[in-house]
Amino acid sequence: MTRRVKILVFGTSNVGKTSIINLLAKSEREIGHGARGCTFKSEECHADFDGVQYSFYDTAGLNEGDGDPTKESKEAIEDLIDLLAEIRDGFHLIIYVRRISALTKLDKQNYDLIKTLTNGQIPCICVNTGAENIDPINKWWEDHKNVFERAEYNFKDGLSVCTVVGTKPEFERIYKILREQSELLLWSCIMDNRLDEPIAVIQKNSEIWTKLLTIIDTVWNWKIPVFNIGLTDVTGEIRDEVVITFKRLLRDHNFDDNKITKIVNKMYLVR
Ligand SMILES: Nc1nc2c(ncn2[C@@H]2O[C@H](COP(=O)(O)OP(=O)(O)OP(=O)(O)O)[C@@H](O)[C@H]2O)c(=O)[nH]1
Ligand SMILES: [Mg+2]
User: Which amino acid residue places its CA nearest to atom 3 of ligand 1?
Assistant: First the structure.
């Protein structure tokens, strides 16, 4: 068993990713109050439970692409790339966070994105926030998990929880109890489903390119030409060509030259 269990917390903006980490790590990181995203940079947050040390990686929310990525969505994807490149050993578990609601296209896009990135190898649990009116709290997941299965999600497990903090003492009295129940459910689900050893997200070979293009395509709906070559065995020359094309694509989407160099170097240097 490795020393620190690493958990990637992923999902669209404003669904409660930071709130979940605050609950588990007993931290007070800033949470969102409006329509705008709140976490813009991935952050590592430590927690201990049952004698085991955990690192949670809070990510910036990824939102639906409309072909015209905003500054925030560009930064979110760059930041995710940085994080994946940095955490070379990989992760023991992914927590996919969403708010209780009907499944949307965006849910599926984000799920497919994380599945593609991880080759489907790292177990992923689905945590649905906003269960304050459900009794018992996990009933929503129990009642709806087959909906996810039918829609071809492949979660190892899931939960419905409440992670909100009350803004008034009379609200907080109730929310506190619900958060305590949620915390126990979360830890038990994490312990049941995490790997003993991490799996690296980005492997040594240049499959990274195909993955990265898939990410960009998924997140921003960019129209990106498919490279029909065996990217796992590309020679230096072809690889250089891929890099040139990739740089051009980033430039077309108004990334400045420093950022482009930074991203390309990051991708190239991974392992
Ligand atoms: N009703 C309800 N609101 C919640 C729950 N969990 C979080 N929230 C609220 O949802 C809003 C967003 O929470 P955050 O934890 O900042 O969400 P996030 O996913 O980290 O958001 P970004 O960093 O912007 O991607 C805040 O106003 C929270 O109070 C919950 O279980 N129930
Ligand atoms: Mg956040």
Answer: 164
